[in-house]
Design goal:
Elements: H1 2-10, H2 12-20, E1 41-48, H3 55-62, E2 66-70, H4 79-85, E3 92-98, H5 109-118, E4 122-132, H6 141-161, E5 167-173, H7 182-189, E6 199-203, E7 222-226, H8 231-242, E8 246-251, H9 256-266, E9 269-272, H10 280-290, E10 294-299, H11 314-337, E11 341-350, H12 353-357, H13 363-379, H14 383-387, E12 391-397, H15 403-406, H16 410-416, H17 428-439, E13 450-453
Parallel strand pairs: 1-2, 1-3, 3-4, 4-5, 5-6, 7-8, 7-10, 8-9, 10-11, 11-12, 12-13
Helix pairs in contact: 1-2, 8-9, 8-17, 10-11, 11-13
Bound molecules: nicotinamide-adenine-dinucleotide (NAD).
Length: about 450
């Protein structure tokens, strides 16, 4: 029965019914494969408002890609004309606009002109990137308002281009971080961010240097991933190993066979532990110590125990809070106390869209996932983390196709996966790519972010 309904929804008649309801048929999203030579390929239109600060740096970053850049750092507002003068009607694979110099709301018209003239030329699966400044770092209220306006612009552009599988993001680059946003720009321009759209990535100034191989950014690093035997955790382990990391995968005893299979495939190390057990922090710290310290911990293990609050037992409440939130904090504290997260390392939590928007029947789950966001937001200022250049971030997945979402009742599932700007569910690898981006040694300026991997879900937006 459910197959027949699913077939109907995927048929042309079904698509018409969904279309009438404003739900678009999904466009297949391109994902990263190691055969891609560089992070970006294609025509890219680069524009800017007055006093833009990042054009030279953007050009330098793009020089490492296969981008054919139209417009240059002297072009500013004239880059639109330059593109037309170029005589080519070929579509753009990306539109990048540097708005860092804008100080007055009426100057935003430069961004209007740029996108008004060019958005129709954005190819399906294209990328829009706006570069701005954090509004709270502004010199005055007018500048703050102007910079914050870019968020509304970029999120709305994401909604306008999502049906064609295109994405739009804003990167805010703090003063002094002009050399630190390269990994963020590469990520949002590349297919690694296929299911990330309508997001803001904040980059702060840090001390970091050196080059990283785009295909093996985590070479020589050790990563510990909880809940690594299946679903999103397995994809995280796969992706980190693909990027060069050695993975220690943690899961509960009943998942041992699956965990061993995954770790054997990746040349990683399985570690059986219930993260809520009293001895779990010590056990995990001991494995980290044997590895000579770790560079990344991903707190992915999570459960749902759904009931409306009136019907929920205290055990269902407490167990969910402990696995999804408290256990991760205890483990992180132990690793930090023992100095087992190396300089320049990363801590990543896994939140959820429902932690942002709330969900009926998920008071426990949403509380735990909102807690992850609060933890990350607070810990970014932790003295020990700052002293060791350790970042702390979270991903907030939306509807991701896993065993967890396959268990959702059919109609809720069918609609759930389409209620976002890209009209489809994401894949576990999409969450993993965002985590690998946080872990990239050149992402040290990215801390305290909760990045939604949700196709710009209509909920919690
Ligand atoms: P999953 O159920 O497929 O995998 C979770 C893993 O965590 C399992 O391997 C499980 O054995 C392990 N685990 C559970 N309790 C544990 C414990 N006490 N100790 C050690 N390991 C434990 O779930 P998934 O869909 O892959 O989700 C992974 C994470 O992503 C979870 O934190 C989940 O809340 C979050 N998330 C998922 C979605 C989605 O759409 N699937 C959306 C938002 C957030």
């Amino acid at each position: 029965m459910s197959d027949r309904i699913e077939n109907f929804i995927n048929s042309s008649a079904g698509k018409k019914v969904l279309g009438a309801l404003g739900v678009n048929a999904p466009r297949e999203l391109a994902r990263y494969t190691p055969s891609q030579r560089s992070f970006f390929k294609g025509r890219l239109l680069l524009g800017a408002g007055d006093n833009a600060a990042l054009l030279a740096q953007v050009s330098k970053i793009l020089a490492e890609s296969d981008a054919e850049v139209v417009g240059d750092d002297n072009a500013r507002l004239q880059c639109t004309a330059l593109a037309q003068d170029n005589g080519s009607d070929a579509p753009f694979a990306a539109l990048v606009f540097d708005a860092t110099g804008m100080r007055d709301s009426l100057e935003l018209v430069a961004a209007y002109r740029f996108f008004n003239a060019n958005i129709r030329k954005l190819a399906p699966g294209g990328r829009i990137v706006i570069l701005g400044r954090p509004h709270m770092g502004a010199d005055n209220a007018e500048q703050a308002a102007t910079q914050r306006a870019l968020e509304g612009l970029s999120r709305s552009l994401a909604k306008e281009v999502g049906a064609r599988g295109s994405t739009a993001q804003l990167i805010t680059v703090a003063s002094g971080a002009e050399g630190d946003f390269g990994s963020s720009l590469r990520f949002v321009l590349s297919p690694k961010s296929a299911y990330v759209t309508g997001q803001v990535i904040a980059v702060n100034a840090v001390e970091q240097s050196g080059n990283v191989d785009w295909h093996k950014p985590l070479a020589g690093k050790t990563a510990l991933v909880t809940g690594a035997s299946r679903g999103i955790g397995e994809a995280i382990a796969d992706t980190l190993a693909r990027d060069g990391a050695t993975v220690i995968g943690v899961d509960v005893a009943p998942m041992e066979d699956d965990l061993v299979k995954v770790m054997t495939r990746l040349g990683g190390q399985p570690l059986i532990a219930d993260i809520t057990a009293e001895d779990a922090p010590a056990k995990i710290a001991s494995a980290a110590k044997q590895a000579g310290g770790i560079d990344l911990i991903v707190h992915n293990a999570g459960v749902t125990r759904d009931k409306t609050i009136a019907n929920m037992t205290e055990q269902q409440w407490q167990m969910t809070l402990d696995i999804n939130l408290a256990a991760a904090q205890r483990i992180t504290r132990e690793l930090l106390d023992q100095g087992l997260i190396r300089n320049g390392g990363s801590i990543v939590g896994v939140s959820s869209m429902n932690g942002i928007g709330g969900q009926r029947g998920q008071t426990n789950y949403a509380a735990s996932k909102a807690g992850v966001i609060g933890y990350v937001d607070f810990m970014k200022n932790d003295e020990q983390l700052r002293a060791h250049n350790i970042t702390v971030n979270a991903v907030a997945p939306g509807f991701i196709e896993t065993a967890m979402t396959a268990a959702i009742p059919l109609f809720t599932r069918m609609f759930g996966r389409r209620l976002n700007s890209l009209s489809q569910g994401g894949l576990p690898v999409d969450v993993a790519e965002a985590i690998a981006f946080f872990a990239n040694p050149l992402s040290r300026g990215v801390s305290g972010n909760t990045l939604r991997v949700c196709g710009q879900s209509w909920f919690g937006a």
